[in-house]
Amino acid sequence: MKRVLLLTVLLLGGAHAAAGQNLIPNSTFDTGIEGWIAPPGGSGAVEWDPAFGQPPGSLRVVGNDDVTVPELCFPVPAGVADYYWRADVYMDASDEFFLCSINFALYDTPDCSDSFAFFVGDDDAFPWVRTPNQWEHLNFDSTMDLRSVRINSIRPVMGKLADIGSDDACVLDNVYFEIVPAPTIPTMNSVGLVLLAALTVAAALVVLRRRSPG
């Protein structure tokens, strides 16, 4: 699994409140974890917990240094777009503190077939659970131009890191993922510009004729 530090210049500030449609079909895990996988390279230890959640029904990542992503692959739109990734996450810890976090899985290929990159950096680079054994609602809402750095597809990802002995879990529930492309500003082609110029000249001539004496 490749890991890269994406320059913060890609992050253009917080996105506006999401108001569209959740792109994740199985977002609450009430009846199972269908549509969610542990990508190749991890331990593959992703389980359904029917008795635990917000409400009961959740996904558990129990392998060490493992992640889960939806099977669906989402194309990155050209130009700037708003990306909304939100979830309830629980650090199910018996002893040591470890990392339960959400991030974006970023792929060079358009079909998510290569290994992915994600945001790394200081503690504020991505959201993570701060208090063990307590549900926290994590938001990773960003405005980004990913095509400019040759990222062509994306998935939301939850990861688990530094669980010594793999005896604990990161628990996921109530996920929300949405991509909102920036509105396109209409532009004129060369023919349209010529017609606009001609109309402007014609309008000016009409005004001049009306103002001329006689």
- Fraction of residues in β-strands: 35-45%
Shape: globular
Helix content: 10-25%
Report the average pLDDT across residues. Answer: 81
What's the number of domains? 1
Q: Which regions contain 5 or more consecutive residues with pLDDT less than 50?
A: 190-211
| CATH hierarchy, class | Mainly Beta
Question: Can you tell me the CATH architecture?
Answer: Sandwich
- Major sheet: 5 strands, antiparallel
The CATH topology comes to: Jelly Rolls
Class derived from helix and strand content: mainly beta
Q: Could you name the CATH homologous superfamily?
A: Galactose-binding domain-like
Overall radius of gyration: 24 Å
Distance between the termini: 82 Å
Q: Number of DSSP strands?
A: 10
SSE pattern: EEEEEEEEEEH
Give me the number of helical elements.
1
